[in-house]
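SAMPLE LOG
Freezer: B-3
Tube label: C17
Construct: single chain, 878 aa
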Amino acid sequence: MTRINGNPVRDAPRPGQCLRTFLREQGCFGVKKGCDAGDCGACTVHVDGVPVHSCIFPAARAQGHAITTIEGLGAGHPGGLHPLQQRFLDAQGFQCGFCTAGLIMTGAALDDEQRADLPRSLKGNICRCTGYRSIADAFAGIVNAEHPRSDETPIGRSLPAPAGPAVVTGMARYTLDTAPEGLLHMKLVRSPHAHAYIRSVDVTAALALPGVHTVLTYADSPAQLYSSGRHENYEADPDDTRLLDRVVRFAGQRVAAVVADTVAAAERAAGLVRVDYELLPAVYDAASAMEPGAPLLHGDKGPESRIADPARNLAGQIHSRIGDADAGFADAAAVYEETFFTHRVHCVHLETHASIAWTDDDGQLVVRTSSQVPFLTRDALCRLFDLPRNRVRVFTARVGGGFGGKQEMLTEDVVALAALRLHRPVQLEFTREEEFSATSTRHAMSVGVKVGADADGRLTAIALRIVSDTGAYGNHGPGTLFHSGGESIALYRCANKQIDAYAVYTNTMPAGALRGYGLSQTVFAIDCALDELARRLDLDPVEFRARNLIGPDDEFASIEGAIHDVRIGSYGLDQCLEVVRSALATGTKTPPPTNDWLVGDGLAVCMLDTAPPYGHVAHARIAERPDGNYTLSVGTAEFGNGTATVHRQFAASVLGVAPEQIALNASDTDAVSHDSGAFGSTGIVVAGTAVIRAAERLKELQERREPGSGLLEAEGECDGFNRSVTFNVQGFRVAVSPRTGEVRILLSVHAADAGTVINPMQCRGQIEGGVVQALGAAMYEHVDFDATGDMLTRSLRDYHVPVMADVPRTEIHFADTHDSVTGALGAKSMSESPFTAVAPALANAIRDATGLRFTVLPLTRDRVYLGLARRAALIPSA
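STRUCTURE (predicted):
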C-alpha cells in the first residue's frame, strides 16, 4: 500500500499523472511547482528515503512505496521539526520560501560526503532570492536569527520572519495552495504570429468537448483599453492593451480562454480552438521600428491612450537639456564616446503567475492572486468591469517571489471575466514556458553615452541617447525610460547634461519591471564610460569617481522639468566608496587557478530614490485585542522582501511590546483602505512609515485612555513624498582565462548606505540576493527570439539561473548613517539598489584584467573569449 507521510492512501493516480500533482491532490501543498521539468527542485520529495523531483516522477511508480513530503519530514523529531528544518529557521535560510521545502528535502537525504560539497549536491535546486549564503549557513548550523528579550528594542536586531515555522514545514500557503469547491481551470490559446488580425475564432469543437464550460474570445472582452503595468497613477502607462484583442502584436499573446473542469480538459479544448489570422507586417528591433515606413503597432490609437507618438512606434520619449553639452565637450581635455547594449533577462520568480477568481455569496468579485500590487489590481478590475471598489476584493496569500514581474495584471483580468460569467471559481496558473514567452522581461536597451572631463578630472558634460525596446505593449515603458535617465546622471556633479531617450514598440513579448527598473541598463553604460574616461586622463578610476560624485549638500540634476522632491536624508556614499576601495586593496588574496590567468579589480557606484515619483500611498491600522496583543493590518504583500518582519519590529518598537505580540493581517483590499504595492523598494519607507504613524497614534490614545473605553485602534498613512536616496558600491576582483574566456570572481564586496538598518540579517539577505541575481544577468542569463519574434527560451534549462556553485560569497558592509527624510526610524530602502552596480563593476574588473572594454551584456565565456581572440588576431573582427 502507498503511504504518504506514514498515512495509507488508497487513491490511484490517473494515467500519465506525475507525482507532484498527485501529492497536491492529497493535500500536500508543500510540494511546489517551479518548472514541471525537473530543473528547479522545488517539488523534491522522498520515495523510500530517496529524493526525487516529483514533477518528472510518474505517480504510478510511487504506488506501493513510502512517500515523504516536507509536511511529514519532522515526524518523530523534537518539536515536530527535522534537524535541518530547525537549522533553516535558525539561519533564516529563506526569503520568499517557495524553494525552501525542496532544498530541505534534498538536504535531509545527503550523507556527510555530500554535505561537504554543497555546490555539487544542491546543483538541482534553485533559489532566486537569497544568494545562497544563508542556505549554506543553515547546513553549517550557523545561527543568524536573534531573539531579544521583551524589554530590549527590536530595532537593529536580526529578528526571524514570523512565517518561518510555516515555511520550513510546508504549511505556508501560497496562491494555489487551496482547493475551493467547484473549482474550474483555465488555459489560454496564444497566437503563433507576431502581428496579425483575427478574422474569426471557431470554438465549436472546443465547446463540444466534455467538461468544457466556456471559451472566451475578443467578442467577450470589454472594449476598454488599459495597461497591464500597475502604478499608483494609472495614467503613467499608456492604455494600449485589451483583455482579449482582435489584433495580436507578439507571438504568445492570448487569443482565447478555455474554462473546463480539469486542466487536462482545458488544454485539450484549447487545441481545438480554430483561429483564422490575417498576417500583418511586423518589426522586431527598436532601431528599425523607429524608421519611417516601419509597421505600426498602435497606429490606430488616439491621444486618449497617452502613447507618445504612435506614428513612430514610440510609447514614450524624453528630450532634456541642462546647460550646454556641446560647450562642455568643447571644453573637455578628454572625451569618451561609446554605445553599450543590455539585453533582456527574466525575473524567474519560482512561483509562476497565478490567480483564482470567484464571486462570493454577496456577489462580490474575489481574486486570490500572486501579485505585488493587489490594491492597484483591484482598481484596474473596477475600471475594466465598471464595478465599485466595494464590489471587488483582491488579496494575496504568501507570494513566491516577484522582483517586479508581479507588478503586472496578467492573470487576474481574464479569470475575473470568467468568474463573473460563470459564477464558479476559476483558476489560471502559468506554466514556466508561458512565463518565458508571454509575461515580461527587462527592457533591452542601447545606450549611447558621451562623457567629457577637464584636465583636473572634473566632468564637463554628459550626453545619453537611450533606445529602449518596450516590446508589443508599453507597460512600464515610459516609467523605466524616465528612471533610466534619472538617478544614473543625478549621481554626478556636472553642469551640462543631455538626454534623448525613446521607448519603442516592437512585435516582441512586452518588457516590464525588473529589479533596478531601467537603472541597471544605463548605469552599466555610464559607469563603464567613466572608467574609460579616467584611464584616458591617466587618473585612478576610483579617485576620478570621488571627484565627481554629488555631495551631501548638492542638488540633483538629471531630467529637465522633472519634479525635484528628493532630498539626501543621509550621506554614506563616501564611506561606501572607501570601504570597497580598501577591501579591494587589502582583501582576500585568493590566487587565480594558474599563473597565466589575468587578474583585475573594478568597482561601480549607483544611487536610487527610496520611492517612485508622484506619490506612493500606504495605509495601516493597528488594533488592540482582548488577549492583550495586537493586530496590525497593512496592504503590502510579503514575497521575500521582509516587510512582514520589519513592520512588526516598527510597531513593537513604538508600542514597547514584543514583536511576537503583533499579529499581521496583510495584503488584502478588505483589510485597509489603500496601498500602492510592494514595488520601488517602498515596503519599509512608505508602508513602514504608515505602520509607525498608526502605532504612534495608538500609543497616544492609550496614554489618554478613559476607564471603560474598550479596545482601541488607530490608523496611519504615508503618501510617499518623503523621498531620500540610497547609495551602493560594488567591487570585484576577477581572474580571466586567456585560453577559454572563463571569468572567476576572486573577491566580491558590497557597501550600502541603508540608513538605520532595522533588521541586519534581512537587509544583508536582500543585498546578497540582489548581487547574485545581477551576476546572473551580467554573466549567464538571457532570453532569445528567433527571426520572426518567437521566443526561443522556454525552460529553466535554457536559461542559466545561478545555482550555489556559480556564485561567490559577497562581503556586505553598511554605512553608519541615519536618514532624516523617510520617516522610517532612519531606515532607507534596500531591495532594488544592490542589483544596479554589479554589471559595471564586473565589466570594469574584466577591463582591468584584460585591457578590453566589453560593451555588450551578458559577459559570457564565449563573448570574453572572442574578444581576447580577436585582440590576439586569432580570428578576424566581424
